[in-house]
Design a protein that fits this description.
293 residues, alpha/beta, Spore Coat Polysaccharide Biosynthesis Protein SpsA, Chain A, nine-stranded mixed sheet, 11 helices, 45% helix, disordered N terminus
Length: 293
């Protein structure tokens, strides 16, 4: 019998769900293939694209064996496609990569280094650079490590400064699978699900900022147009589900009673920032004001 060799898993698995991403996919893949940390795999799932995406994927998969591509037989939906690439991950560490964003060449090296240096951390957060479609910078979010602060102050600082782009940081794979499972099971919306997936890492002080590398998050507005609840009738149950999920995460956290009480008191502020503006929602419900956010 021929000798068998164990399959060596990569250190980092990168999941990239894609649908009709031809305009920016090559740039996203180039930024990953140029990483200084090279022990990774890219799990690419094409959600039945109708543009040039399949051709681009085939070209890059032929060029680099670290790319493992699947084309779905039919469109399975965005959340299911995010789930598909996560379930295929083999590495100890995991990150999602959007097909329209890009990364500094030291991205994996810097975030992986932060997690390896502290076994208690489960998520490493990069510097987030939000870019407009014309290439100009819309804003920058920098999260320092803050290890000199108390645990509660670190938690509140992370909650107040968190942005959606942090979702594309680096996680310990087992931890992000558990967090994604809960968000998918207990929150029946796509909009703001990224914030709730990250919430347990922030609440339990398991996330740390890394200033030595940047993630470039292109603001397309597609998610807002597709998934954001619009009417007051839609927004009230959405907000209720958001707050209920947050309550569950605080209660199940490893925090002290005092810390939990303070975090619970902060939830209206957090939901106002990450889910829906309370003032606009009330105005819309009472006066029929068109804009809510």
């Amino acid at each position: 019998m021929p000798a068998t060799h164990p399959v060596i898993s990569p250190v980092i698995s990168i999941g990239m769900p894609v649908f009709n991403g031809a305009a920016h996919l090559a740039q996203a893949l180039e930024s990953l293939l140029a990483q200084s940390f090279t022990d990774f795999e890219i799990i690419l799932s094409d959600n039945c694209s109708t543009d040039e995406t399949p051709r681009i994927i085939a070209e890059y998969a032929a060029r680099d064996a670290r790319i493992h591509a699947t084309r779905q037989a039919e469109n399975i939906g965005g959340l299911a496609n995010f789930r598909f690439v996560l379930e295929a991950a083999r590495g100890e560490f995991y990150m999602w990569a959007a097909y329209d964003d890009w990364h500094d060449p030291n991205y994996l090296e810097a975030l992986h280094g932060a997690l390896v240096a502290d076994a208690g951390l489960q998520m490493a957060v990069p510097r987030i650079v939000r870019t407009r479609m014309d290439g100009t910078i819309a804003g920058v979010t920098e999260t320092p490590p803050m290890r000199n602060l108390s645990r509660l102050r670190r938690i509140l600082a992370m909650l107040s400064s968190s942005v959606g782009g942090m979702f594309y940081g680096l996680y310990r794979t087992d931890a992000i699978k558990a967090a994604y499972d809960r968000a998918e099971r207990d929150f029946p919306y796509v909009w703001a699900a990224d914030h709730l997936t990250m919430l347990p890492f922030f609440i339990n002080d398991r996330a740390q900022g890394v200033l030595q590398t940047s993630f470039y998050n292109r603001e397309t507005g597609l998610s807002e147009g597709r998934y954001r609840p619009q009417t007051a009738a839609q927004l009230w149950p959405f907000l209720s589900s958001f707050l209920r999920f947050c309550l569950q995460e605080v209660r199940r956290s490893r925090l002290s009673i005092r810390e939990k009480a303070i975090c619970l008191a902060y939830l209206p502020v957090y939901s106002n920032d990450k889910a829906v503006k309370w003032r606009r929602l009330l105005a819309r419900a009472i006066f029929g004001v068109k804009k809510a956010g």
